[in-house]
Amino acid sequence: MTTRSQRDEEGRVIPLILVFTMICILLITGVIAVTSVHLSRMKLLDVSDGAALAAANALDEGTAYGGGVRGAVPLTDATVRQEASEYVSSRPLPGTLYGWSLGGRTGTPDGELAVVEMTGTAKVPFIGWMLGDGVRVTVVSRARADLEE
């Protein structure tokens, strides 16, 4: 024999399970989306690091032969941008990015340090349709080619 209070409680577990299941699915989806954007950022940073290393070794012949070489490979904004651009164009675009480009800060602040800024748009799985064109990611890499005497 069931009492009235036991009958009032019947059927309330299923909605509770459904609500908690939805919360878990939303959390998992959010974690997957954030992880995907972070991995896209790391791929962009890898290419930016390679471009900075290539640019740091890009000797500006006019400066080197005109004024000599001091403690590092002499650079100019033009040589850094050109080498970085060539390096980036030689790399395949990862499937997690819609596109990438060099940023405005790409160059050399002191004639010896190569700075490469890259901007890309990361694809976001599952919830990308809510964010429109993806998430914009910007990274900056620096490299310097020191010379030994």
From TrEMBL:
Superkingdom of origin: Bacteria
Keyword list, A-Z: Membrane, Transmembrane, Transmembrane helix
InterPro entries, per the entry: Tad_N (IPR028087)
Protein name: Putative Flp pilus-assembly TadE/G-like protein
Transmembrane segments: 12-34
Naturally occurring in which organism (per UniProt): Knoellia remsis
Domain Putative Flp pilus-assembly TadG-like N-terminal: 12-58
